[in-house]
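Continuing from yesterday's entry. The apo prediction looked reasonable, so today I'm repeating it with copper (II) ion included to see how the binding region is handled. Same sequence as before; SMILES copied from the compound registry.
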Amino acid sequence: MREIKTRKARKGLGALVGGVLALSALAAGCGGGGEGAPAMAAEGNPPDAVEIVDFEFDPTMVTVEAGTEVVWTNRDNAAHTASAKDGSFDTGTLGSGESGRVTLDEPGTYAYICEFHPFMTGTIEVE
Ligand SMILES: [Cu+2]
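Holo prediction written out below.
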């Protein structure tokens, strides 16, 4: 008689020790000279931006929904305005680096100019 010895292979489960990595986030405040884009939480329609560069409105034509705030920012050294031809809005004088905000509630097409440089023209279309 032969004794058959059955060996059951036991798979030993090694306990896996998970290493916990403590990541320390160092918040280093760098005051670099980047572009200061204000990150504001937008309520409703986000403001539409027009830049004034080289005696031009950029973009020259903007289409927005009624109630949208339009922001003009003067990137020129010269002072400019964004003044509706029909007088419905006017940012007033915007010096270099300044911004003017206008909220347009009434649907329509608003042609505007710069008071100082009437050859500067732009259009806001309010839907
Ligand atoms: Cu101008």
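Comparison notes:
- The radius of gyration is 31 Å.
- The chain has no helices and eight strands.
Will overlay with the apo model tomorrow.
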